TrEMBL record:
This is ferroxidase. It holds the Pfam family Frataxin_Cyay. Belongs to the frataxin family. PANTHER family: FRATAXIN, FRATAXIN, MITOCHONDRIAL. It is an enzyme of class 1 (oxidoreductase). PROSITE patterns: FRATAXIN_1 (PS01344), FRATAXIN_2 (PS50810). Its EC number is 1.16.3.1. InterPro entries: Frataxin (IPR017789), Frataxin/CyaY (IPR002908), Frataxin/CyaY_sf (IPR036524), Frataxin_CS (IPR020895). Keywords: Coiled coil, Ion transport, Iron, Iron storage, Iron transport, Mitochondrion, Oxidoreductase, Transit peptide, Transport. It comes from Candida metapsilosis. GO terms for biological process: intracellular iron ion homeostasis; iron ion transport; iron-sulfur cluster assembly. Residues 70-97 form a coiled coil. It catalyses: 4 Fe(2+) + O2 + 4 H(+) = 4 Fe(3+) + 2 H2O.
Amino acid sequence: MFTRLSKSPQHTLRYLIKPRIAPSISRCAVLRIPHAPMIHATTGLRVYSISTQGEQLDGKIDQISDGEYNKLSNEYLENISEELEELNEDYEQVDAELSHGVLTLTLPPNGTYVINKQPPNKQIWLSSPISGPKRYDLIQGQWRTLRDGSLLTELLEQEISEALKISFKFESVSS
C-alpha cells in the first residue's frame, strides 16, 4: 500500500476511493490535487519607527507578551460586552454579542459595529458605520489609535450617546 500511496495524489485518491467507498465514482471522476509549497510561520518582534503622521513611535506602544495581550484584550472586550448587555435592558434595539474575540454591536440607526482582536499585531480593530475602520494599540494601558490619538472607549461612548440621544459612559472600562 505504501508504494501505491507514494506514486501521485491522483493515484492515491483513486486507490482509496475505488475499493472501499464508491467503485462507480472512481471510474468517472479523478480529482486533481496540486502540490502546495510548505510555508513555515515564524513569530517576530513588532518594531515601530515612524507613525503615519511622521512621529517617532519607539517606546510609545506598550511592549507586552502575547499572553498579556490576550488577557488585556479579552478583559476589555468582555467588560464592554457586559455593559452593552446592561444597556440592552433599557434600550432593546441595542444588541451586542461577543464570540471568539469578536464583539458585534448592532446600534440602530447607526448600523453594525465590529470590534475584534488582532493578535499578530497586538491591536484591537474597530469597524464603525459612522467613523469607519480604526486600529488601536495599547499605549500607557489604554487602547489608543496612532492616527489621531483618540481612545476606543471614548469613540464608542460618543457614537452610542449620539445614536441613543443620551449621555452614555462605560463604568467598568477605563478610557
